[in-house]
Write a structure and sequence with these properties.
Layout: H1 3-11, H2 29-39, H3 45-52, H4 54-59, E1 76-79, E2 100-105, E3 108-112, E4 115-116
Antiparallel strand pairs: 1-2, 2-3, 3-4
Length: 137
């Protein structure tokens, strides 16, 4: 997609945002926060966070994800909006994003004081419409 197409899509209230790469993408959530929230003002910070969290969980009918409430899974990102940046490039895609101070997945720290911990507490989530294929495909 072109830059103007991405900006137009991001402004739509029904468009959620995900990152389908295993942590090595030169694009992604920090780029959205830096470029489209902080620099271009295409989204508010609150709207971007909703599009990363509550909206995708709602669309996938994952009632125990996407919000901070007692009794649901603790997936939390603590970041400094002024420091968030995406140093990864296509030549060096594995650069850890800056400004993500803490990332908790299922209540366990995977980033602690801006450093990877090596922990991998995540699990595969499937939406309500997921079906297991029994035909070998």
């Amino acid at each position: 997609m072109s830059g103007p197409d991405v900006a137009l899509a991001l402004r739509q209230p029904w468009v959620s945002i995900d990152n389908d790469w295993p942590g090595t993408s030169p694009d992604g959530l920090p780029r959205i926060l830096r470029k489209y929230v902080r620099e271009e003002h295409q989204l508010t910070l609150e709207e971007a966070v909703r599009k990363f969290s509550a909206l995708p969980a709602q669309r996938m009918r994952l009632a125990d994800r996407g919000a901070l409430k007692r009794g649901i899974w603790a997936d939390v990102v603590i970041f400094d909006p002024a420091r968030v940046r995406d140093p990864a490039t296509f030549e060096k895609p594995s650069q850890l994003s800056a400004g993500m101070e803490y990332v908790l997945v299922n209540g366990a720290a995977v980033i602690d004081h801006d450093l990877m911990t090596g922990r991998r507490p995540g699990k595969v989530l499937r939406g309500a419409r997921y079906r297991v294929r029994h035909d070998g495909g």
